[in-house]
Design goal:
4-stranded antiparallel beta sheet; Dna Ligase, domain 1; Rossmann fold; binds magnesium ion; alpha+beta; binds adenosine-5'-triphosphate; D-amino Acid Aminotransferase, Chain A, domain 1; 6-stranded antiparallel beta sheet
């Protein structure tokens, strides 16, 4: 097939905030995906989506499919921008639809759906002005996060707050600096887990990945903060989490965690691939933090490929699974 790879290239820009490009993809990732696609016999075209003439480029491309990892340009629906254009042009693409991408980028809306589906998620409150009275049923410590970001943007260990004064300071700071609502959640102590789902005919839930931050004691980064994600592997800064895949869980808990991720994938209506982030409380409740329908696919560093490798897949198999799943979906829709 002729496949266009749509992406945002990560480029350093000293005039922008330090986390400006954190969601975007490195050349290493883009090259790895294109090599994998070529190894399956596909012809690959590169489409960096911040280019001005994106609509006509895609319209004139005459590709059979788009392999989409683009985060989009700006705003609360940015991850849906490319799929919306592709829907209009009737070009099939890998991954989730405009609807699921927009819902998943809205953490509070995702949580509302999870609650309706009886999937555990931390108790929360959404702050719009920063003047709202805090819900008295919420128990400190709480964590404050931008409602519409990924890659842990805006999340440092100072976002975990122990009292009302700290809470309001952080809420106002995030509303102002990210120009969006602040999500306040109960902070769940316990294991950090993430679960990959591949949907290729039937859903395949990959081995659960556990991320252990105890070796990061020197940096004081005890959870998956922005610094931990951005500089992961930097041992001098103490930013070296330990990965366990499969996670160190008993069989019943592992089954429960996998089931929870699959229910989340289905509740949000994701296609082909998703990664669900979970905190497992000491009493074994798998609290879903969020679902990522565009998980990072760096072959060396990203969580998702690590889970695929643990399932015995090669990087090429992972990419092929995504393409095959999108193709099968397309065939079904078109009878
Ligand atoms: N309620 C919580 N309790 C405990 N830890 C939390 C909670 N919310 C967030 N965290 C920590 O912060 C990290 C980032 O939070 P979250 O996954 O919501 O943000 P994100 O920016 O969407 O992440 P991603 O990089 O996966 O897109 C989590 O992986 C976890 O370590
Ligand atoms: Mg996350």
């Amino acid at each position: 097939m002729k496949i266009a790879l749509t992406y945002n290239l990560k480029v350093k820009d000293a005039t922008k905030p330090a986390d400006y490009a954190s969601e975007y993809d490195s050349e290493e990732t883009i090259n790895a995906i294109s090599s994998a696609l070529r190894s399956q016999g596909h012809h690959v075209e590169f489409v960096e989506v911040s280019r001005q003439n994106l609509f006509s480029v895609l319209k004139d491309s005459r590709v059979d499919m788009v392999f989409n990892i683009a985060e989009g340009k700006h705003g609360k629906f940015r991850e849906s921008e490319i799929p919306a254009i592709l829907d209009y042009l009737e070009i099939p693409y890998t991954g989730s639809s405009t609807l699921s991408l927009a819902v998943a980028l809205n953490k509070a809306l995702t949580k509302k759906i999870l609650k309706a589906e009886n999937i555990p998620t931390p108790a929360y409150q959404l702050f719009t002005s920063g003047e709202e009275e805090v819900d008295p049923s919420l128990r400190f410590p709480l964590i404050v996060k931008p409602n519409f970001e990924g890659s842990a943007k805006g999340i440092t260990r100072n976002n975990v707050v122990d009292n009302k004064a700290e809470l309001y300071l952080k809420v106002k700071e995030l509303i102002n600096s990210y120009n969006q609502q602040a999500l306040v959640e109960e902070f769940i102590e316990g294991k950090e887990l993430t679960v990959g789902v591949l949907e290729n005919g039937t859903a395949l839930v990959l081995p659960v990945l556990e991320i252990d931050f105890s070796s990061a004691a020197t940096s004081g980064e005890y959870f998956y903060s922005w610094r931990m994600k951005e500089f992961q592997g930097d041992s001098q800064q103490g930013l070296t989490p330990t990965f366990h895949c499969p996670a160190r869980l008993d069989k019943d808990t592992e089954d429960l965690v996998k089931e929870t991720a699959l229910l989340t994938h289905r509740a949000i209506g994701c296609f082909d691939i998703s990664r669900t982030d979970i905190r497992l409380s000491p009493d074994n409740v798998p609290y879903v933090l969020e679902i990522n329908p565009l998980p990072g696919l760096n072959p060396k560093e990203s969580n998702f490929p690590l889970m695929a490798y643990a399932a015995g897949m090669k990087y090429e198999d992972l990419i092929d699974s995504i393409v095959t799943s999108a193709q099968q979906r397309r065939n079904l829709t078109h009878g």
